[in-house]
Amino acid sequence: MTEPCDLTALEARRLIGVKKLSAAELLESCLARIALVNPAVNAVTAMDDVASRATAKAADEATMKGGPLPLLHGLPVGIKDLEETKGLRTTWGSPFFAEHIPTRDEGMVTRLRASGGNVIGKTNVPEFGLGANSRNTVWGATGNAFNPEYNAAGSSGGSAVALATNMVPLASGSDTGGSLRNPAAFNGIVGYRPSVGLVPSERRAHGFSPLPVLGPMARNVPDLAFMLAAMASDDSIDPLSYAFPGVKMRERPELFHPVRTADLSALKLAFTEDFGQAPTESIIRRAFRKVVAAVSPMFGRAVEATPDVSGGDEAFEVLRSVGVLSAHAEKIRTRPQDCGPNMHANVKEALGYTLQDNANALTRQTQIYRGFQTFFAEHSVLITPGICASPRPWRELYPAEIDGKPVRTYFHWLSLSYYVTLTGHPAICMPVGRDEKGFPFGLQIVGPRGGDVLVLQVAAAIEAAFAGDAEFARPVPDLAALAKAPPIASMYAFKTWE
Question: Rounded distance, CA 445 to CA 453, Å?
Fold first, then answer.
């Protein structure tokens, strides 16, 4: 019999609504799964069982009273450890905040709670979210759901692994260079980078920067759209927060949920394995070509094509460094011993740029954005691999080379994601089978400006087409093996930078 924690979010919510499953039963199942599997992967960090049990009890009391129930009523939610949670330890994976307990929820968490979500715990991240290896000296490393000795990616790595192992039905994430999409690719779940401002954030120090966004993560597309409906909002505290014309987002969850499947035969597909320049590993290229061969006949037209992203590496490197410098230069200056190698490298890099470099980066970003508009006038959606490389051991802080060729930065292997980041276009990463090493293969689907609904519908259609397919269906980790695996904390360099 399926454990409650193994149910999809939508099915669990339906059963709660018809009083065939209690919020308390679901919570206890999730807590039991965390106790069983988390030692092997270290995905979930700070928890408050007393508070989450009280929330579940209150949800069940509301259910028994009858009447309308909120969207996520009774569903446990994992919150990425870059988002503040009232009364629950929030560290950003840094010794600076190792014992930090916020006195308030940030807006996204407030909206999830108001929609009935039960915050079960925090999920692990790289130090301050810098990089795609969820490893820090506060909580240690997070292992891949399919092999704990391998990288779970990041920065939403803890959320992705918690979802893949059914510790939670829903989890939050954030994305600058692919932090929602990269761990989704590595762990066989779905991560969504929405259009900039669709999920408001009051924490961006540079409020007008389109690079960082908040977004949902789930095990399938309908669950993800369900969570997005609770996260999307209008909030004037975020200068980039927006609504569709004449639409108040909080009053229209049906824009996203229930998600409908698109008629792919009416759409024009473009595909590229590298945007013409990304350092895509050969194993990823081969897996992608198989997916393209399977997906292309579903569309009315499919052609190999790419928007021009030349100069995108340089533009992203500079624009990303501006945020890093603002957030972390003072930490490096005053407490360098408490800062990890990524922080040191990032601040050093940022200090080397000039105002002219920043001007050039902003100009090229705008040119790439405008090129995307021309591209999507000819194509409905674009698909690419979700990430440039297959997972490697987490002790390797980042891939220094791919297929024998050195990468230009420690985050260059994320370029398939960050070229899209520069434009603010919506993008989803969904699991489509495995690569030759047995790890999940993630497919990135990029939509036109403001095309969030279209991206979700296309992803839902592809997911439905591959459901039950031995080659392309979503892979699942071996939970029995993880339950028997040695604790990741016993591995060498678990909580160091060695």
Answer: 12
Distance of CA 346 to the CA centre of its chain: 22
243-249-252 Cα angle (round to 5): 135
Closest C-alpha to 410, from 316, 498, 484, 489? 316
> Which pLDDT value is given to residue 493?
97
Q: Rounded distance, CA 105 to CA 111, Å?
A: 9
| R_g of the chain, CA atoms, integer Å | 21
pLDDT of residue 235: 85
Q: What's 14-69 look like in SS3?
A: HHHHCCCCCHHHHHHHHHHHHHHHHHHHCCEEEECHHHHHHHHHHHHHHHHHCCCC
Task: Please report the pLDDT score of residue 1 as a whole number.
Answer: 44
Q: In 3D, which of 117, 140, 183 has the Cα closest to residue 45?
A: 140
Tens digits of per-residue pLDDT, 144-200? 999 999 999 999 999 999 999 999 999 999 999 999 999 999 999 999 999 999 999
Task: Look up the pTM and report it.
Answer: 0.97
Domains of the chain, CATH where assigned: 4-313+353-490 (3.90.1300.10)
How do strand 427-434 and strand 268-271 relate by DSSP bridges?
unpaired
